[in-house]
């Protein structure tokens, strides 16, 4: 294996390959494991104890599928169990959570919970599992419920990529999301993929995202702005700043300004943002501008002096609260 000269470009190794955990010590069989879980108050168990129990008995996790489907666990118990399965983050856990999501006979709420648990994954999902997820997500025969869940699944994949930033798996995952963004013509799916890439915070695909800043659909422009706001850097800031100059839709202006605020702005950029805090602007846009400017105070105290004059004769309560919070902080 050859490595780049710059250490910063070396691939990140999974933690468990550097510091392997002790071998699991499972119970005698799946029935003993599931019986124990059903007898325990899962909410009362500490996270460490429950995680160790799941780790030791990971080979039996698939046995939980039918129990969950049958409603064997009380709602709060199941919520805790799924969360801890997600945080256990081993292959068997990934497989169970994906299988629950893919089970179209299961209650939609439990399928959603499974996705919410899967988003804690900090270890790579297997290629086969990713293919199974995409096979469902990309299907042209989804019900209305499945379409909503598929959009959630895409956004979760973005979060998982963010959890593993810098790894080959994360790079592969964001590439697969970006490829779908380029090829799909479905506006709902485009919006979801933009959000997913934003969740990943991977600037590799910021150029593809930026093209949606000039889309005819204002909601897509706003979603693209939000995505770029999650990957603050000079290039994404340039896209946002240029787009703000020509944007007339208030919702999109708000998204662009908020996204710009996630960057460290220079004096000229701060002044451009503050133009949108003036009284002739829509109040939601004004609040976004004030909040974006407030984020600059840590490195530019002069922003406070620029905000103070806006307090004079201000009557809107939402704008006043934003100004007071920006100027006085939590004091």
Overview of the molecule:
- The protein is an all-alpha fold.
- The protein has three domains: 106 residues, no CATH class; 123 residues, Leucine-rich Repeat Variant (Alpha Horseshoe); 68 residues, no CATH class.
- It is built from 19 helices and no strands.
- Helix 11 packs parallel to helix 13, helix 14 runs antiparallel to helix 15 and helix 15 runs parallel beside helix 17.
- The mean pLDDT is 94.
Produce a short descriptive summary.
The chain is 63% helix and 0% strand. It has 19 helices and no strands. It starts with 14 loop residues before the first helix and ends with a helix.
What is the element layout, followed by pairings?
Elements: H1 15-18, H2 30-39, H3 47-56, H4 64-69, H5 75-88, H6 91-102, H7 108-118, H8 127-137, H9 144-163, H10 168-183, H11 187-200, H12 206-210, H13 218-229, H14 234-246, H15 250-261, H16 267-274, H17 283-294, H18 302-307, H19 317-328
Helix pairs in contact: 3-5, 5-7, 6-7, 6-8, 7-9, 9-10, 9-11, 10-11, 11-13, 13-15, 14-15, 15-17, 17-19
């Amino acid at each position: 294996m050859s490595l780049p000269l710059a250490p910063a470009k070396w691939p990140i190794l999974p933690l468990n390959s550097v510091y392997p955990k002790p071998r699991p010590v499972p119970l005698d069989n799946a029935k003993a494991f599931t019986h124990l879980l059903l007898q325990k108050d899962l909410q009362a168990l500490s996270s460490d104890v429950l995680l160790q129990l799941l780790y030791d008995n990971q080979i039996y996790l698939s046995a939980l599928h039918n129990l969950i489907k049958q409603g064997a666990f009380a709602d709060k118990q199941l919520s805790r169990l799924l969360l801890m399965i997600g945080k256990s983050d081993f292959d068997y856990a990934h497989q169970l959570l994906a299988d629950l999501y893919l089970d179209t006979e299961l209650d939609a709420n439990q399928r959603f919970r499974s996705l919410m648990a899967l988003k804690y994954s900090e270890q790579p999902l297997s290629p086969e599992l990713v293919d199974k997820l995409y096979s469902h997500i990309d299907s042209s025969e989804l019900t209305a419920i499945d379409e909503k869940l598929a959009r959630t699944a895409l956004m979760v994949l973005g979060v998982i990529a963010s959890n593993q930033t810098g790894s080959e798996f994360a790079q592969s995952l964001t590439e697969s999301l970006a490829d779908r963004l380029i090829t799909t013509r479905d506006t709902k799916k485009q919006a979801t993929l933009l959000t997913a890439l934003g969740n990943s915070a991977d600037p590799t695909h910021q150029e593809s995202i930026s093209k949606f800043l000039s889309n005819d659909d204002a909601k897509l422009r706003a979603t693209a702005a939000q995505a770029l706001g999650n990957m603050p850097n000079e290039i994404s800031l340039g896209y946002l700043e240029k787009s703000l100059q020509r944007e007339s839709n208030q919702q999109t202006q708000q998204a662009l300004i908020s996204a710009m605020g996630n960057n460290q702005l220079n004096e000229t950029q701060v002044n451009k943002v503050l133009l949108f805090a003036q009284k002739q602007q829509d109040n939601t846009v004004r609040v976004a501008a004030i909040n974006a400017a407030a984020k600059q105070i840590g490195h530019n105290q002069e922003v406070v002096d620029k905000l103070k004059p806006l307090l004079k004769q201000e009557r809107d309560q939402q704008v006043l609260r934003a100004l007071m919070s920006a100027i006085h902080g939590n004091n």
